[in-house]
Design goal:
The chain starts with a helix and ends with a helix. Strand 3 and strand 4 form a beta hairpin. The chain has a single domain (about 50-225), classed as Metalloproteases ("zincins"), catalytic domain (Zincin-like, 2-Layer Sandwich). The protein is built from 10 helices and 4 strands, in the order H-H-E-H-E-E-E-H-H-H-H-H-H-H. The chain is α+β, with helices and mostly antiparallel strands. Helix 5 crosses helix 8 (about 160-170).
Amino acid sequence: MSVIVWAALAVGGSSPVVAVAPAVAAGLVVAALLHSRAPRSVLRTLRAEPLVKGDHPRLENLVEGLCTTHGFHQPSVHVVESSAINAASFGLRRPAAHLVVTTGALSSLNRLEIEAVVARQLCAIRRGVTFPTVLASVSRLPGAAPVTAGLAARVSGFDTVSEIDVQAARLTSFPPALASALRGAAEGPGLNTSRAAAHLWMVAPQRDASAVRERSSTLQRIDVLSEI
């Protein structure tokens, strides 16, 4: 954005040197707006709806129980209508983070598996989701995808996601539950969602050429859990 403003001022007759200050200022304003609005932007991107109290009591109980027992800040819980088995977490601050679970996960997984999925996403929040959240928001901007793709790949790299898996499995003391949920996510229906937020999901949505690679990565994560 700063470059665009600088170029516009320069073309308009301003000295290139003089144009630097307003260009930088404009860039900072845009960056601040993107940062503050990132969670709302991600919610729209994921098409997540707030969990209606009483609709999924098992999910409500598991979130509350895990947060109380292990000292997590309780996130705002949302649901995405999809037959896919998946979950995501994001936010700018731990006390105001968001947890998203697909209806497919809620209907297909048993209690232990859902607990493992929730624990995993809570561990992701504790690890830090501010940068991934802002990255997902920025990725929605026209022309931003080629620039942010490499950063997203690092955020959702194998070492990072596998480490979060292991933390969650040790927290629940039952690694097979998370392994089973991951297998269900890899082998079940795909998740139709924006590429901009793919790195926020427990298992990145499988699309075309990335499907085989993503499934292979998920199977590796399952192997790691089997060794705990």
